[in-house]
Design brief:
Elements: H1 9-36, H2 50-107
Helix pairs in contact: 1-2
C-alpha cells in the first residue's frame, strides 16, 4: 500500500507569494541603494587625497550593497520559482493519477 502523501498546496503557494514579495522588496532596496550612491562630487570635502579616498570607499560600499541585494533578490526569485514549479508538478501528477484511476474504473465490469 503506497504511503499517504498530503501536500498543503495553499501553504506552498503562500510561501511562493512571500518569496516573490521579498524578491520585489530587495529589488526596490537595490534601486534605493543605487540612488544613495549618487552623491555630489564635493560631498566628502576638498581635502587632497582624503576626499577621493572617502568617495572611493563610499562608492565601493554602495556597489557591494547593490551586489548583495541583487544576489538576494535573485535567490528569492529562484526560491519562488522552485515552489511554483513544485506545485505545478504536484498538480499535474494528481491530474494524471486521477485520469489513470478513471481509465481503470471505466475498464472494469460494472
Amino acid at each position: 500500500m503506497p504511503p499517504d502523501i498530503d501536500v498543503d498546496v495553499q501553504a506552498i503557494r503562500r510561501l511562493e507569494t512571500a518569496a516573490q514579495r521579498v524578491a520585489g522588496s530587495l529589488a526596490a532596496l537595490e534601486g534605493q541603494l543605487a540612488s544613495a550612491g549618487d552623491v555630489p562630487s564635493d560631498a566628502f570635502g576638498h581635502l587632497p587625497f582624503a576626499s577621493d579616498m572617502l568617495r572611493a570607499k563610499y562608492a565601493g560600499q554602495v556597489a557591494g550593497g547593490q551586489e548583495l541585494f541583487g544576489a538576494a533578490n535573485a535567490a528569492f526569485g529562484r526560491v519562488a520559482k522552485a515552489l511554483g514549479d513544485t506545485i505545478e508538478t504536484y498538480e499535474h501528477n494528481e491530474r494524471e493519477l486521477d485520469a489513470g484511476f478513471k481509465a481503470i474504473q471505466s475498464g472494469l465490469p460494472g
